[in-house]
Amino acid sequence: MTDRVVVLLDMDCFYVQVEERDNPHIKGVPAAVVQYNSWKGGGIIAVNYEARAFGVKRGMRGDEARGKCPDLQLVQVPVNRGKADLTKYRDAGKEVIKVLCEFSDCVERASIDEAYIELTQTVEDRIKKKNGTHIATDMLKSSWVVGYDKTKDGDQQGVREKGVHEWLNSVFENGEDAALPLDSNHPQWDNVRLAYAALICEDMRAAVLAQTGFKCSAGITHNKMLSKLACGLHKPNQQTVLPQDEVSQLWDGLPVGKVRHLGGKLGDSLTEEMGCNTMGDLAKLSLQQLIGRYDNKTA
Ligand code: TTP
Description:
It is found in: Nucleus. By secondary structure, the protein is α/β, with parallel strands linked by helices.
């Protein structure tokens, strides 16, 4: 199940970033985008991270949010013939996709502000090209590795860097300075590919920033479901690697509904009928048990 390397890239507070690019005076200050209906200050649909620090959340009315953050800048979604006009956000999303296509032939747009990027081939090509070169901690400047990312309050960046360093040391047998295990039968081969994917993803996110002005976060794993999950673990403007050997530990404490496709009725049914509260519970069920309850494809 680890033959592929897939990235999910998700723009940070996307509509606000688009508005910030058009109105630089709101950059770096608390800001939110509201729906065209201006009742009670409008319904908030996107919030930047500066405003989130004050407790401003999607779904609040603008007036309520200003109660939490008096200096909050509110920007209205453009309106055309009485309806929200999302053209500028869609166009901005297309700009990002164009950059991503420079890094892979296989990019799937998943929503207005996120895309899956199949990096399997790109990674293999880069490993061949870099034959024998290692990846140093400081090449992964905004990367986190699940299982090596336990932070209490305090020096987040210090913890991040230490975690990346430890992980790279475990992947490249003799430390970062070792030659790469280039053999695909090597026990660390999957992690070598993830490390290279992280390196490419750092470049890809830097290219998105340079060419569009937008910041984003990413998840790097062997499949779409895990990449989507990993992406949400460290935001904004960060990327998270989830090595396959760390998945079961992550699963144990993770409610089923947090995972892609399991947030709705299917997740409810898994909890109520199959007794799965966490992904760990779900992982203990056999495929046969799931086929006994759901159709083959769902199982
Ligand atoms: P999201 O990616 O869900 O959120 P976000 O980009 O604002 O913030 P984050 O950094 O947490 O990823 O949504 C992308 C955009 O889609 C968002 O900026 C506004 C729009 N949107 C809506 O209009 N209504 C909604 O209910 C949601 C979830 C998003």
